[in-house]
Amino acid sequence: MTTATTASSAPTWMSMTRARLGVELKEFFRSREQMVFIFFFPMMLLLLFGSVFGGEEIAPGVTFAQYFLAGMVASGILNTGFQSLAMTISIDRDEDVLKRIYGTPLPATSYFAAKVAQVLIVSAVQVALLIAMGVFLYDVTLPSDAGHWGTFAWVFLLGTAAATTLGIAMSTLLRNAKSGSAVITPIVLFLQFTSGVFLVYTQIPTFLQHVAEIFPLKWLAQGMRSVFLPESFAAAEARGSWELTTGAIVLAAWVVIGLVLAVRTFRWTRHDDN
To answer: Which tens digits make up the pLDDT trace of 177-199?
Structure first.
């Protein structure tokens, strides 16, 4: 009788993952730094840039605010998956939080599944708020057909997967948490300025466009533009089309690269621990 009761009350993988997800969400939403610089930052930039340049037309029927919305949605996904994860995991490693988690019965797969679910939930809420701002403040017209929303779904999921796996991998490449901001912030800013987020992509120098094509943010932003801008704007893109197939291949490749790097390099202890 005792054995049966013990067995029936043993936590399952799902219950442990759900409990860990609750912890991850509480830590994120209770962190002022995460809320200001990760969650609300894209909204503040959309409000700021939209107020200053929002009315300027960059193509017939397309204002800068509408163009900027797609970039902020893409940038928000990168910030939440890549920048936030890399820095918070690095801090947890430096403070021996990862070491203590590793010593508990929590399976490693539960820990990472909770991290991925947290990024998906936070990104989904953030993207929904950005889109609402675009609709109510800058007259962005939402797509009315399933095809565009299908494109939005796979671009969002592939972009989030790429950012998440790369964020986990980057957390280990950082030697310590103090170097996190100094290393990651310039990378994110460079990608934002060269990938058509802060500037119209076709207006930046061609060699920088080619550099940006290597990384996922350019394809994430272009994929979002294909959803929220008129079809006629495709002709104004660098190659005269949305290049969705190429974007899917590049994003999928970064998912694989990030996953391989994360699996091969992740460590639960500090770099100075033996």
So the answer is: 777 788 999 999 999 999 999 99
